[in-house]
């Protein structure tokens, strides 16, 4: 019996099978056709191979003796904390096969300053970041010819701290021309230009293997924990603060955060002061379907991954309808979302030695796409 005939028979016998060819589900929780999580899987795979072979990046060189080597060089330890994505990327990049010491071979040029480390450097601090960036661009544009060839259009920097959204205000050419790979990837942020810039996932470093709690063991419909630091979160608390199905916490949790994530079917990402939050990656890691409640958020790897197949996106105006929306998702649809969460979470992890299709390689692919568009201009 052929695969399609077998699926047809089984779909009549078991409700866990979808009627759509793009969403067939096996008892193991894996799709027969797993293309759904990608916009175009074949194109991605083909381009990914070409990227690995040919993409070259020139990193502006600095020495340990430089006054701001702590800001410009990769850290000499394993990154940690809420903004680890920024440090992980640079640490992995400088030892990768993508770098070149010959600028004439470079597709892109990396501006290696760290916004997070500038913020904590007492010589700079929050108030001095804008002047530091302005001075840095002035120096490299006079010391090297590469910036001036394109006015920075083939240059990029990486920043995870939300302060990065203000950092380029005295370096307008960076803001307008350079590729900004940032966690604060909101269309509402004037410094962020979709398609030119790219969304960097904010990911906590994690040790050990990924949890794989079965969907039927998850008892809570929805879960959120965080501080009240935005009107959106205030509205969430107003509507669902005392609900018995959607658990909204703005204070100390009775159980651990991990236990809450593992016990919930849907985990809420709710815009705070900024849209950049590690909660999306938290949800994916623990097998909880993320619910995105943040208008005009340029989701990480959105050029590659089709988020509607592994998350639920809810407009902030629809917070009063949140429970109805989540309860309206059938068990069959939820199992498909959950299955896809397990597929994509490998793309949201950092490794000291990069692993194919992990967060580092996915960011590199986003850069590859932008490098390709630059060549067409």
From TrEMBL:
Pfam families assigned to the protein according to its UniProt record, in alphabetical order: Exostosin_GT47 (PF03016)
Signal peptide (from-to): 1-19
UniProt keyword list: Glycosyltransferase, Golgi apparatus, Signal, Signal-anchor, Transferase, Transmembrane
UniProt topology in membrane: Single-pass type II membrane protein
Domain called Exostosin GT47: residue spans: 51-328
MF (Gene Ontology): glycosyltransferase activity
InterPro entries in UniProt: Exostosin, Exostosin_GT47
Domain of life according to the entry: Eukaryota
Compartments, as annotated in UniProt: Golgi apparatus membrane
Cellular component GO terms held in the UniProt record: Golgi membrane
Major location category of this protein: Golgi
Similarity comment text for this entry: Belongs to the glycosyltransferase 47 family.
Protein name as annotated: Probable glycosyltransferase At5g03795 isoform X2
Origin species: Nicotiana sylvestris
Gene: LOC104243817
């Amino acid at each position: 019996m052929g695969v399609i005939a077998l699926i047809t028979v089984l779909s009549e016998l078991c409700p866990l099978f979808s009627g759509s060819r793009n969403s067939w589900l096996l008892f193991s929780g894996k799709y027969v056709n797993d293309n759904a999580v990608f916009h175009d899987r074949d194109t991605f795979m083909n381009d990914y191979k070409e990227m690995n072979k040919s993409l070259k990046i020139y990193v502006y060189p600095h020495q340990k003796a430089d006054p701001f080597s702590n800001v410009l060089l990769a850290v000499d330890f394993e990154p940690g904390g809420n903004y680890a994505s920024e440090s992980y990327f640079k640490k992995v990049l400088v030892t990768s096969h993508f770098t070149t010491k010959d600028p004439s071979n470079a597709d892109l040029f990396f501006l290696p300053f760290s916004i997070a480390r500038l913020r904590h450097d007492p010589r700079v601090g929050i108030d001095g970041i804008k002047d530091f960036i302005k001075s840095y661009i002035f120096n490299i544009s006079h010391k090297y010819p590469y910036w001036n060839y394109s006015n920075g259009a083939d240059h990029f920097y990486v920043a995870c701290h939300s302060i990065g959204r203000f950092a380029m205000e005295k370096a307008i050419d960076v803001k307008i021309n350079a590729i900004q790979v940032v966690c604060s990837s909101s269309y509402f942020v004037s410094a962020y230009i979709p398609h030119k810039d790219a969304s960097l996932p904010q990911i906590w470093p994690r040790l050990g293997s990924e949890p794989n709690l079965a969907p039927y063991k998850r008892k809570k419909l929805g879960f959120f924990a965080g501080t009240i630091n935005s009107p959106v979160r205030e509205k969430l608390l107003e509507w669902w603060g005392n609900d018995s199905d959607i658990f909204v916490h703005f204070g100390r949790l009775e159980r651990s955060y991990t236990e809450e994530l593992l016990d919930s079917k849907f985990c809420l990402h709710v815009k705070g002061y900024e849209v950049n939050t590690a909660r999306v990656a938290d949800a994916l890691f623990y097998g909880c379907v993320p619910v995105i409640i943040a208008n005009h958020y340029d989701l990480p790897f959105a050029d590659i991954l089709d988020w509607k197949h592994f998350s639920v996106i809810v407009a902030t105006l629809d917070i009063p309808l949140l429970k109805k929306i989540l309860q309206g998702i059938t068990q069959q649809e939820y199992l498909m979302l959950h299955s896809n969460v397990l597929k994509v979470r490998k793309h949201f992890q950092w490794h000291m030695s990069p692993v194919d299709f992990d967060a580092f390689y996915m960011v590199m692919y986003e850069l590859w796409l932008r490098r390709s568009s630059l060549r067409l201009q």
